[in-house]
């Protein structure tokens, strides 16, 4: 995976070459990613779905993250990013069903990892049950959902903690239901401005 080749960009979002994934993160080069946030309404309440990163992941194991996301390879277009939803979550969706929130650029440094992403961000509005998810457990160990209003209040500083509910895969044929209280520390540390942009985009969509 570290040898995957990605397109790299300057600060003006102009493509300037290619580099391996390892080089991109070691040198802090701007690169393209695909983000898909799944939202839905259940009994009149709006929810946002979050993945639990696998405990075996090199970066941010066990933390809550974007529902499905991944790097765009050098030979891929943004439309190709839809594969991440199927690969990670087992959910079939067409690119035309997605709602674009545009490109959000942000930078996060964690240890030796310098992650500078041009994130092509999308929302998928659907009615799903937790039984609809078939996870790629090497990448994703579980799925939870939070009330969107609570998620919004958490990242806007109005709440210190929120409740999430969903399931986690314990073994190949064993998933357990979970309901717990989480704080910002339980999330992958994307920039606060990134979360704020997501909240604004989804809020505009919900109207």
How far is the N terminus from the C terminus?
Answer: 40 Å
Assigned CATH architecture: Alpha-Beta Complex
Low-confidence stretches: none
Our count of helices gives 4
| Global outline | globular
Give the CATH level 1 class: Alpha Beta
What is the name of the CATH topology? Nucleoside Triphosphate Pyrophosphohydrolase
Class of secondary structure makeup: alpha+beta
Task: Give the biggest sheet.
Answer: 11 strands, mixed
Write the H/E string, N to C.
Answer: EEHEEEEHEEEHEEH
Q: How would you name the CATH homologous superfamily? A: Nucleoside Triphosphate Pyrophosphohydrolase
Report strand %: 35-45%
Mean pLDDT: 94
Count up the domains: 1
* Helix share, percent: 10-25%
Q: Specify Rg, calculated over alpha carbons.
A: 17 Å
Q: Would you mind describing this structure in some detail?
A:
- The protein is α+β, with helices and mostly antiparallel strands.
- It is globular.
- Strands 1, 2, 3, 4, 5, 6, 7, 8, 9, 10 and 11 form an eleven-stranded mixed sheet that branches.
- The termini are far apart.
- 18% of the residues lie in helices and 44% in strands.
- It has one domain (5-206): Nucleoside Triphosphate Pyrophosphohydrolase (Alpha-Beta Complex).
Topology:
Elements: E1 5-9, E2 15-20, H1 21-27, E3 30-42, E4 45-53, E5 64-65, E6 68-71, H2 83-89, E7 99-110, E8 113-125, E9 140-147, H3 148-155, E10 162-171, E11 174-182, H4 192-206
Relevant terms:
207 residues, Nucleoside Triphosphate Pyrophosphohydrolase
Give the structure's gist in a few sentences.
By secondary structure, this protein is of the alpha+beta class.
């Amino acid at each position: 995976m570290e040898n995957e080749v990605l397109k790299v960009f300057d600060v003006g979002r102009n493509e300037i070459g290619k580099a391996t994934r390892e080089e991109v993160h070691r040198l802090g080069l701007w690169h393209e990613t695909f983000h898909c946030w799944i939202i839905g309404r259940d009994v009149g309440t709006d929810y946002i779905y979050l993945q639990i990163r696998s405990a075996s992941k090199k970066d941010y194991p066990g933390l809550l993250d974007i529902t499905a996301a991944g790097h765009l390879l050098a030979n891929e277009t943004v439309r190709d990013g839809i594969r991440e939803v199927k690969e990670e979550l087992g959910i079939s969706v067409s690119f035309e069903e997605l709602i674009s929130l545009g490109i959000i650029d942000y930078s996060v440094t964690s240890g030796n990892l310098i992650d500078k992403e041009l994130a092509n961000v999308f929302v998928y509005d659907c009615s799903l049950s937790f039984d609809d998810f078939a996870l790629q457990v090497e990448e994703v160990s579980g799925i939870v959902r939070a009330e969107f209003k609570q998620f919004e209040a958490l990242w806007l500083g109005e709440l210190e903690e929120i409740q999430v509910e969903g399931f986690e895969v314990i073994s190949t044929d064993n998933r357990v239901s979970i309901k717990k209280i989480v704080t910002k520390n339980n999330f992958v540390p994307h920039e606060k401005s990134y979360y704020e942009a997501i909240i604004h985009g989804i809020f505009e969509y919900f109207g």
